[in-house]
Amino acid sequence: MATAAAAVLFATDPGALDHCLFAHVSAEPAHARALARMEKTPLLDLGMRLGEGTGAALAAGIVKAAVRLHTGMATFAQAGVATKES
Length: 86
Prior knowledge:
It contains four helices and no strands. By secondary structure, the chain is mainly alpha-helical. The chain has one domain (2-73). The longest helix has 19 residues, at 54-72.
């Protein structure tokens, strides 16, 4: 349902989805075609066709972990890592 809604928005303004992440591609062929038409690659492809957002729930954990890693990582300067000078 979420991808169908996104497809309507994409048809109106393709740039409106630039900030969107697509969690999972369903095993249903039309879902993969809709994502391809919008030029979106989902984070997961687990062959599920459950329809109740299971893929989104799994992807949310992955995205949260990635954000935590990114925001918690020190820069080279903060970590005291020497860089090669030219």
